[in-house]
Amino acid sequence: MKSVVIAGTIRADEALLVGMKMLLEGKTAIDAVEETIKLVEDNEDDWTVGTGGLPNLLGEVELDASIMDGKTLRAGAVAGIKRYKNPISIARKVMEETPHVLLVGEGADQFADVMGFERAELVTESGRDIHKDFLEGKGIVKKGYDTEESFKTKERYYKSFQRMVKDAKLMKWYKQYTESNHGTVNILAIDVNGDICCGVSTSGLSFKFPGRAGDSPIIGAGNFADNRYGAAACVGVGELVIRLSMARIAVYELSKGATVEEAAVNAIESIRDLAPDKGSVSIMVMDKEGNIAAACNWKNYYFWLATTENPTPKKIECIFVDLEQEILAEGYHR
């Protein structure tokens, strides 16, 4: 049997076990990617993806997702889903059942209804309370339902914006906040047939402007897959990733003969073209042989990788790219 590979961002470790099992049983990369992401979406302790995702400024959860088939280059995506819990599955239906690529807002929810998806309440009690405390500038508040672990998670999320919440100038705060707050699940897989799939799902920037969509549902930006070369997906400041079409940059680098390490680093290096705009971005890259690497412009970040030889997901450190230093590589630049 040809080797199979599946990799995911930091919140996908346990879910990857299911995806790897599917691949070892001969299931397609598309099936494995969808099922793995669904498990992350259904984890209410994850405040950045699916049910339990933190809401926008108006208190509504808006979910985005995309999926791409490297064999056919077909893709499906949704943005602004408010009433259904598994946007990755809705995105797959867009890819397979329609001539379209991207459905947004009310139209995406209506499509989900027509396809038979069940409605769900996306705003959890915890998410509603965090939103209320955020608007009132209370900072970290421990609730009766908090466990020790969930409160630690809450503290981690609050650390990144507690100080900035006190800034009355909303646009200034929002710009600072978007530079360092993000959360998305990316899954890349290659199956026994050598077919590649890439999937992305997110609840987007916490407390975002209503209607804001980042890179996750944008094919070529947050997600791209092509059997001939490989695949790539991003986590981070979506606006930067969209402006650069960063996933497409990485796959283009692969098409020129770059290694996965070179492709990932050069994609992150391209952020230099947007100076003085800045923000945190990570990209995970897989080539057609199943080699995988990731790069980011902050330290101590990692991803999970499972292979036929090592089916238990293993933590792999991302390559740190210091954008404050001089250019060290010949990247994808103007």
Description of the molecule:
A hairpin with a 5-residue loop joins strand 5 and strand 6. The protein has helices at 13-24, 29-41, 87-97, 105-114, 125-135, 148-159, 162-165, 170-180, 238-244, 246-255, 260-269; strands spanning 5-8, 63-69, 75-81, 102-104, 185-190, 196-202, 223-226, 230-236, 281-287, 292-296, 302-307, 314-317, 319-320. The strands form two sheets. It has an eight-stranded mixed sheet with strand order 4-3-2-6-5-1-11-12. The chain has a single domain (5-119, 180-320), classed as Glutamine Phosphoribosylpyrophosphate, subunit 1, domain 1, CATH 3.60.20. The chain is an alpha+beta fold.
How many distinct helices?
11
Element-by-element helix/strand order: EHHEEHEHHHHHEEEEHHHEEEEE
**End-to-end distance:** 43 Å
Strand order of the largest sheet: 4-3-2-6-5-1-11-12
In CATH, the topology is named: Glutamine Phosphoribosylpyrophosphate, subunit 1, domain 1
Tell me, rounded to a whole number, the average pLDDT.
84
CATH class: Alpha Beta
Identify the overall geometry: globular
Low-confidence stretches: 160-171, 329-334
Could you name the CATH homologous superfamily? (Glycosyl)asparaginase
Range of strand content: 15-25%
Radius of gyration: 19 Å
Number of strands: 13
Kindly name the structural category.
alpha+beta
CATH architectural category: 4-Layer Sandwich
Main sheet makeup: 8 strands, mixed
Count of domain modules? 1
Share of helix, binned: 25-40%
Name a few traits of the molecule:
alpha+beta, Glutamine Phosphoribosylpyrophosphate, subunit 1, domain 1, 8-stranded mixed β-sheet, 5-stranded mixed β-sheet, 33% helix
